Amino acid sequence: MKAAVVSEFGRIPEYTDFRDPVAGAGEILIKVHAAPLSPIVRGLALGRHYASGVQAGFVPGVDGVGTDPDGRRVYFLFPKSPFGSMAEVSQVAQDMVVPIPDDIADGRAVAVVSGGLAAWIALTRRAPLQPGSTILINGVTGAAGGMAVQTARHFGARHIIGVGRNRHRLDALDLDTRIPLGEAADAALRAAFDRGVDRGRAKLTPS
Q1: Can you give the residue ranges of the Enoyl reductase (ER) domain (predicted)?
Q2: Of 96, 112, 137, 171, which is the most buried if we count CB atoms within 10 A?
């Protein structure tokens, strides 16, 4: 099969032939439609991420959208090394796929999940959001930050404070308090915390 192959750390992956994956017990093969080039993928491909390993010779990509053996269009996560998602076919565990609605395009699906997972995990695992909470989202104008706002509303946040650099994007988000980074940011943040932020359960800083 064809794939983007990391043959040497520090070099751009090469589009070339790579051996075909063979599904083992509890695994399936996915015909890949789209795969995101996220920061973690760049770090792994360059050998700069802690999970990169000690040698090259793999296909990068940690998630993507494709077709499973039953013809369903699915999102998949964490392909089995060395068969990353930037290939014609990827090898994944059966329990690491979910179906995608027909009205969501492949590119949109992978883009939404990349930012959405960061927000979802932060607000459901790391700092579980309680209905009626006041939360502060740092970096709200980024992809993960914007998804965090929607996730917080979904789980019943009462008051959302957003902090970010992009004033146009800040104004467009569904926020109760907007704090643009600048000379007045320190005073605005102090005032927000004086009024009360549920930091222990609901503060979020998406990466």
Answers
A1: 10-204
A2: 137
> Residue ranges of the domains in the chain?
2-104, 109-202
Taking the CA of residue 6 as centre, how many other CA atoms within 13 Å lie in the half-sphere pointing to its CB? Answer: 25
pTM value is 0.71
Q: What is the mean pLDDT of the chain?
A: 87
Exposed / middle / buried, residue 106 (Cβ in 10 Å: 0-12, 13-18, 19+): middle
Give the tens place of pLDDT for each residue, 2-60: 999 998 888 889 999 999 999 999 999 999 999 998 888 888 888 776 666 657 789 99
Classify 2-104 by CATH class.
alpha beta
**Topology of domain 109-202, per CATH?**
Rossmann fold (3.40.50)
What's the CA gap between 18 and 32, in Å, rounded?
14
Among 110, 101, 97, CA closest to 35: 110
In angstroms, rounded to a whole number, what is the distance separating the alpha carbons of residues 11 and 196?
48
